Amino acid sequence: MSTLFQLHGDLTSLSNTQQLPKQYQQGDAIILLGTTLAFIDIIINTVVANKNHDQQSFRPKLYALQEDFNNLNPTAQEKLTDKLANTELVIEFIDDEQWVALVETFDNVVMINH
């Protein structure tokens, strides 16, 4: 059974991601919603540290809404682009229609927000 974790929040509410490492399994995916996208490194480091994954081999399937990226301020967009350029993490940017279709491909959907 595969799970899609939908994360939505800000830096102060990311403590809720502590649930994620306990539940995340290979084959699951994460979609970063809203400004959560800007904190991708914190989220991934939390999962890696708490699941004893080797950071080099851990490649979660990541999604984000293109609109959310476009709504980040230019500085946050630039920082995120730099983070992605300096790592092997890949985010697939999708639109609302693709998001709905994506949700339908998972057995479970878990929303983690503030």
Which secondary structure elements does this structure contain, and how are they paired or packed?
Elements: E1 3-8, H1 19-23, E2 29-33, H2 40-51, E3 61-65, H3 66-71, H4 74-85, E4 91-94, H5 96-103, E5 108-113
Parallel strand pairs: 1-2, 1-5, 2-3, 3-4
Q: How much is the average pLDDT?
A: 82
Provide the number of structural domains: 1
Provide the low-confidence segments as ranges.
Answer: none
Tell me, what is the CATH class? Alpha Beta
In helices, the fraction of residues equals: 25-40%
- How would you characterize the largest beta sheet? 5 strands, parallel
The gyration radius over C-alpha positions equals: 13 Å
| CATH superfamily grouping | DsrEFH-like
- Helix vs. strand class: alpha/beta
Query: Strand tally, please?
Result: 5
Order of helices and strands: EHEHEHHEHE
| Widest β-sheet, arrangement of strands | 4-3-2-1-5
Termini distance? 26 Å
CATH architecture: 3-Layer(aba) Sandwich
The shape is globular
